[in-house]
Amino acid sequence: GLADPAPVVQTFFVDEDIKKKYRLDSVITVVDAKYIVERLHEKKPEGVENEAVEQVAFADRILLNKVDLAKDEDELVGIEKEIKAINPTAPITRTQYGKLNHKELLNLHAFDLQRVLDFDPEFLDEEQEHQHDSTVSSVAVKVKANVNMDMLQIWIQRLITQDGANLYRYKGVLSVKGMDKKFVFQGVGMMFSGGFQGNWDIPEEERESRFVFIGKNLDHEFLKDGFMACRASNVMRFKIGEEVEANVGEWVRGTILKHWDEGNAYRIELKDGNKTNIWAPVDINAYVRAVK
């Protein structure tokens, strides 16, 4: 029925008793080919959400049912375009009388990070704005770039804190500078999960980062600009072997040992008598500066 899926989905992440006994495999949305476009464009009173739009936005897979009632192929293509304008990542399966192989619905593991690695980049068109109405939209970014891990974490935390209530679904696969593994993440609202999964099989300079956010009242430019600001620079202020001062609560002299070590801009050996190694996550004066 027409119910808001958000509370149901989030229950599987926040209720400890449910988490112990059950696993949310995926969100399947069945839409009626005859009426879905009308439902998606239905005007609601101010403050009332369009549940049909929300159910499409939350879906991992969409069943376009009653396709036999469509006038022709052009109408079906138009319906699918309307759906993809809200959720560009969910595969659409055409059905009649709801008939299909059950294997297409079960054990999808849509909320597992490992499955995010299967995130098809062809779903993303960074040149196209996917917007259904004035509130629900999707923002997709696909760019050949490596990100700074520390700046990425700050950006994600700020995003979830400020816009978490407006985020329906999001997922991404990112290339972190100095890391051989892919950073994958997915989330529902303020329920975020992320980690390193799977090795890159191409050189760092050729890696591509991609993500998509689906939600309401999304600030597209904030999302895109915020991500682009996390990109790691290839131009470093200090050379390997150069003497610097590192901030460890106080300024201590040390020597640059390595650039981009485990996602950190610098690995530094302190001149503290113990040759202690520390890391500067970002190439800014707050962490490391020239010797005064």
TrEMBL record:
This is CobW C-terminal domain-containing protein. Keywords: Chaperone, Hydrolase, Nucleotide-binding. Residues 136-231 form the CobW C-terminal domain. Gene3D superfamilies: CobW-like, C-terminal domain, P-loop containing nucleotide triphosphate hydrolases. It holds the Pfam family cobW. It catalyses: GTP + H2O = GDP + phosphate + H(+). InterPro entries: CobW-likC_sf, CobW-like_C, CobW/HypB/UreG_nucleotide-bd, P-loop_NTPase, Zinc-reg_GTPase_activator. Belongs to the SIMIBI class G3E GTPase family. ZNG1 subfamily. GO terms for cellular component: cytoplasm. One of its GO terms (molecular function) is nucleotide binding.
